[in-house]
Amino acid sequence: MIALDEPHLRLQALSLVLTRLERGEPVTPGDGGLNERALQRLRSLPLGELARLAAIKHLRVGILVDGDSLDHALRTLDRLSQESTLLERCVAHNAPRVLLAELFGPQAIALAGRQRRQRGERAPRGRPRLPDAATRDGIHARWHALQASGLNPAERYLALAEAYPELSLASLHAVVHEFDD
Questions:
Q1: Total-model pTM
Q2: What is the pLDDT of residue 85?
Q3: Nearest to 19 by CA among 48, 39, 49
Q4: Which residue in 165, 142, 25, 20 sits closest to 94, CA to CA?
Q5: 3 φ, ψ to 5°?
Q6: Contact between 164 and 135 (Cβ < 8 Å)
Q7: Rounded distance, CA 34 to CA 40, Å?
């Protein structure tokens, strides 16, 4: 348990307990010495008395952090940060709306629109320019090699963009899907 030594932090924690009690949410009596009588007494305290209670140094209030849920939350944060970075890179490479929705879901279109407006850019419109047949064959070969590499689709498109810097992501997307029905 991480002890909350500052009175204002203890007051916030006690206020949270009271808020949960008022909502009818369970505050498990018996855990950490809490009992129904103490909770009822806490509930009956006016705000001034609650502040005085929080200032008493002998009152031990703390935070318990579940390690497994923290690990899960940190992994989720890493994944979200990586997705955000990939989205920003795709927008910087002028990814078309259809590709953004395919890679990141429909909410990505709105995010990309906001980012483009902040930079004063317009979204790409119209049919993308396709390269010659030999270049398209090279793109197809590179795409299939990237599929076997274990990269996620956004990373594969960005790898294609690095390999073919003269083409936009819209053009690369069109080439990758040119034989789809």
A1: 0.67
A2: 93
A3: 39
A4: 165
A5: -75, 140
A6: yes
A7: 11
Query: Which one-letter DSSP state was computed for residue 6?
Result: S
Which residue ranges make up each domain of the chain? 2-63, 133-176
**How many whole angstroms separate alpha carbon 92 and alpha carbon 115?**
9
The sign of the dihedral angle between the CA atoms of 44, 46, 51, 57 is negative
- At 125 the pLDDT is 73
**What phi and psi values does residue 62 have, to the nearest 5 degrees?**
-150, 175
CA 38 remoteness from chain centre: 39
Closest CA to 164 of 89, 91, 93: 93
- Distance in angstroms (rounded) separating the CA atoms of residues 151 and 153: 6
Spatial distance between the Cα atoms of 161 and 142, rounded to a whole number of angstroms = 11
Q: Are the beta carbons of 53 and 59 closer than 8 angstroms?
A: yes
Q: Which residues pair with 103 in a beta bridge?
A: none
User: Which residues have CB under 8 Å from 160's CB, separation 6+?
Assistant: 139, 142, 143, 146, 172, 176
Who has greater pLDDT, 30 or 103? 103
1-15, 19-33, 35-49: least confidently modelled range: 19-33
Q: Write down the pLDDT at residue 22.
A: 87
